[in-house]
């Protein structure tokens, strides 16, 4: 199995998004950076850190229901030590959304006070940014004030849309952006495991192979509990993948194991949290 192929995915529209974000930043009071709680380091976009360096920032660790709770708590703490407010949420169930509103009040306290002194009740404007599939739309839906009317605002394009949200907020949605060159192969793979990189540009078997390799090292018990096969019995992740395929009866004609179908099944189960609450980044 090849280990040399570099995962690269930076379609032209993402370069355009980066430019649009740069142009839109002066229009917002703060940036709300959504991270996948399973990979808070690997999914941070260095472009965004650079572009929004001078803006107040809130980090949302989304999909916290899929991540290892102890590791997520360590990340929240670590961001706090860096002076960054981070909140763990589950955008699907809206868990943690109230803490997000509290974080906005804290991060934008000065702006809120200025508005109060001026006697104005202006909405606070936040840019919502994050890599593809991290849950931006789900989050916006969770906080949207469906009754409020979104007036025309500068910076509105088909790509950058404003949404009225509860807590007197206006949110600017941005399309997901990945960065031109992933730092290293491990970062790229973690983005692939979690579905941030489209499967169509990947070799599914290769991704499943590396996911199994990673899980054998970090969460062998979860693998055992899910597939009832001891991962430690296999020297090679590929042999373990085949054992799972065999056990699930995923065979092609001639009795060979359908490793592509097995790989897809394992990736789906990982992404759906069926293998357990798993964090792939460590502080
Ligand atoms: P994006 O705008 O950043 O691209 O992401 P989007 O909101 O479309 O979410 C991508 C997928 O992640 C969706 O699943 C969504 O339901 C799921 N998701 C978002 N937030 C959470 C969360 O906190 N926890 C969990 N477990 N999942 C979350 P999908 O399979 O594409 O759609 P659906 O079948 O759930 O509707």
Explained architecture:
By secondary structure, this protein is α/β, with parallel strands linked by helices. The protein folds into 2 domains: 162 residues, Rossmann fold, CATH 3.40.50.300; 69 residues, Orthogonal Bundle (Conserved Hypothetical Protein Ylqf, Chain: A, domain 2). The chain is 42% helix and 12% strand. It has a 6-stranded mixed sheet with strand order 3-2-1-4-6-5, with helices on both faces. α7 packs across α8 and α10 crosses α11. It is elongated and about 75 Å long. The two termini are 30 Å apart. Bound molecules: guanosine-5',3'-tetraphosphate.
SSE arrangement:
Layout: H1 12-24, E1 30-36, H2 46-51, E2 57-62, H3 69-81, E3 85-88, H4 97-107, H5 109-118, E4 124-129, H6 136-143, E5 161-165, E6 169-173, H7 185-194, H8 204-218, H9 220-227, H10 237-247, H11 259-271
Parallel strand pairs: 1-2, 1-4, 2-3, 4-6
Antiparallel strand pairs: 5-6
Helix pairs in contact: 7-8, 8-9, 8-10, 8-11, 10-11
This protein binds guanosine-5',3'-tetraphosphate.
Describe the structure concisely for a colleague:
The chain has helices at residues 12-24, 46-51, 69-81, 97-107, 109-118, 136-143, 185-194, 204-218, 220-227, 237-247, 259-271; strands spanning 30-36, 57-62, 85-88, 124-129, 161-165, 169-173. The protein has two domains: 12-173, Rossmann fold (3-Layer(aba) Sandwich), CATH 3.40.50; 203-271, Conserved Hypothetical Protein Ylqf, Chain: A, domain 2, CATH 1.10.1580.10. α8 (204-218) packs across α9 (220-227), α8 crosses α10 and α10 packs across α11.
